[in-house]
Amino acid sequence: MRRSNPKCSGARKQRRLSEAQEIQLLDSWIEAGIPDPGTNPLAISAPPPDAPIGRTKDGGFSPYAGVRFFRQLPISQRTKDGLAPKYVEMSDIQRASLPHSLCGRDILGAAKTGSGKTLAFVIPVIEKLYRARWGPEDGVGGIIISPTKELAGQLFEELKTVGRLLQHMDETPNFECSQLQILVLDEADRILDAGFKTELDAIISQLPKRRQTLLFSATQTKSVKDLARLSLKDPEYISVHAESVTATPEQLTQLAIIVPLDQKLNLLWSFIKANLKSKILVFLSSCKQVKYVYEVFKKLRPGIPLKCLHGRMKQNVRMATYLQFCEETSVLFSTDVASRGLDFSAVDWVIQVDCPEDIPAYIHRVGRTARFRNAGKSLLFLMPSEKEMFTKLRAVEPKIPIKLKKAKEPVSVSALLSSLLVKFPSMQQLAQRAFVTYLKSIFLQKDKDVFDVSKLPIEDFAVSLGLSVTPKLRFLKRKSNVHRVSTETTEEVEASDEKSKVHNINAQATVRSDDVEDDVLLPKESPSFEPEGDKAELSTRILKKKKKLKINMHRPLGTRVKYDDDGNVIPPLAALADKETGDGSIDLGTVKERYEKLREAMKVRDKEDKLLHRQRLHDKRTKEKLKLKKWKEEAEEGDDRSESDENEQRNPKRTKIYFDDDDNDEVDNAKAAKRSDAVALAEQEALALELLRSMHS
Ligand SMILES: Nc1ncnc2c1ncn2[C@@H]1O[C@H](COP(=O)(O)OP(=O)(O)OP(=O)(O)O)[C@@H](O)[C@H]1O
Fold this sequence. Notes:
single chain; alpha/beta; 7-stranded parallel sheet; 5-stranded parallel sheet; 22 helices; 14 strands; globular; binds adenosine-5'-triphosphate
């Protein structure tokens, strides 16, 4: 039989007593200083930092509406301890909303990205449950809904920092919500939009109507319908940056660049090569785009670690990637799964390679940089057909100060990509999927002023991805007769060829502009991976009547469009033309022969690469061994070093090797997953220990 330790139970009783006293004090303090509804605490002049806090000498309480520091708020000592020393002075949204939310009001809060909205709702949740002395037996006391798992994970970390209450709340076996005290919707406008309707309605139907509700976002809803759905009671509308001149953080430099679809990857590559020391977040429109660009760029070894994040990845790998990107200077290719709420530290650049679907999406994406008083830069790629997006961004109120820039001709990687696709046939499928899903995503976009698939250089796009055959676009054929871009028949090929030629010429005109304004966009070196490029002289003109093969013959493996003296586009695959017929049709034998040669050359090259890599690894290991040996010898000689030096000896810094082995990927992912599991395990252990300690104290 377990006996209770009288010392322990005494301490617990004492703690409960002092908690009860603290709660009573907090309740009275909150009641005494309750701000008038509709008032803005930011407009109230702040008391001096050394003014008394809490109960005053005259038996009253210090005011808390208008204060600047967390310690001046009527919140528990434990929360104050959790906040300090990192969080001392409140941000505007915190100052404006906390006095209202702490006294139980519903809040509809809007503030720019990175302005500290998370703490503005985490603190009231924790305090409400603390003051209600919520325990596991009471069921679920608070729910915070966020649009992505990464964001939920990040919120959980933030909660853990601020409120130790979670130690006994997070694993509550009683998932009963009938007593719910407080509901939070983070990124509220996203959660309230149609995509989440079914899930949200299902959750809300389980919740009691009598509760406090907090809604926060950088781009807020005011739709009465939405508010009715959530049964908000006289909410406080707190929009701290409503008067602001800009809708985005002031420390954010925003650029846009016009770039044709088939030049996007070239520009992206050039950009990365020119910014190897920067942490870069790249947004693409679909998982498949992300996967393809990540895979091929990795093989081209840009000289900076690359990562990818999308919804199809396993959760633990996603989480590990997110954590790694927080810590490491690298390039992260991502879908919009990373566009909202995520607080990656110190991102230098946000690059939107694919245009965001609307202005809120733009604001959230660029908001991954320039967070909380830090500076940051963003670059938006717009295709010539998407120029309207620029006009819309410039027209919005409050303003988005985005400037149009021109870039020099980027380094072309298309040829390298086609070589890769020959070398790694499995990548062809990735490229095809990226091609189709991208065009489909444009086709499905709602804003037709901006997104028009019929204006895109489809054939050139395929070539730019390294594809030698343009994949079929059934969805276009089925849905519309206007968009004549399907490649299912010879006639259709011809029609779209004409179109893509026109776009190609426009594209070249834009990209070749010499009017360069921004050095950061310029490549400093060419890619190290040399293509098995075809340098065949092209001489015949394109004739389109008969074609023996339905392949994209208008651009060779990624090379640029060339023109003859009369300004006509020279067909790049003319070298493959059937010389006997002389009609420009493709000779199957020549094609086969050519590919055979190419494959052979790639094999040789591959062998050389592998040898080189093995040699490098060998040299590196030898170097490390020598280093270790030297350290050991020095240590044995009794070198009295400082403790930190010794630690360094034990963990000599490893140089990272960027290599393009297929297997490395899975190994990386597995390692990342393991690391994330290890982190989770370590956290659980720490929690368990803390629990044990508190039971025995
Ligand atoms: N009062 C504060 N003092 C110092 N740092 C703070 C404070 N409040 C928040 N931060 C830090 O600012 C960063 C951004 O905060 P947070 O993620 O809450 O922004 P947000 O407004 O929710 O952004 P988003 O709209 O992108 O979700 C975080 O790193 C957070 O730790």
